[in-house]
Amino acid sequence: MESIPNMNDHFQDFIQTGLARSAPQWLLLVFLYVEHHEDNGHGRTLSLTPLMMTHQRLLQALSFDAVVAEADHLDDRWEFLLLGCMDDAPEARVRERLREIARQLATGADLSDFLILDRQEHPIVMGTQ
Question: How far apart, in whole angstroms, are the C-alpha atoms of residue 113 and residue 9?
């Protein structure tokens, strides 16, 4: 994992991109905890575990600071925030999509469709082995 220096307002850029889509959007938020695993002879490994998952309508008024404050009120152990958007759908479908994202995290699937930010709003680039 590598952090990219924060030269832009990445969260707001993401929000604006979603708002520019023709269909109303859901904002998918997955708060991640980093688990450190012992050296297994191939080096130390890390895994990302969903700590909290939620969704809300994508709105202009959303701010990174407000999302962080609300999340910290519930559980402040998260280290990264994974963001995604999806077209308007029934809430049951949105919850299923969040479960799919959790499975993607568990299996080490490609996460390039998502924006991952640290607590300082720096984008995180996931490396593969």
Answer: 18
What DSSP assignment string belongs to 47-106? Answer: EEEEEEEEEEE--TT--HHHHHHHHHHH-TT--EEEEEEEES--HHHHHHHHHHHHHHHH
At position 13, the amino acid (one-letter code) is D
Give the DSSP H/E element, type plus range, for residue 4. Answer: none
Tell me the whole-structure pTM to 2 decimals.
0.85
DSSP lists the bridge partners of residue 66 as: none
Token pair belonging to 2:
């590598």
One digit per residue, the tens of pLDDT, for the chain of length 129 reads 333 344 457 999 999 999 999 999 999 999 999 888 777 676 677 788 999 999 999 988 899 999 999 999 999 999 999 999 999 999 999 999 999 999 999 898 889 889 999 999 999 887 654
Please count the helices (runs of H) and the strands (runs of E) in the chain.
3, 6
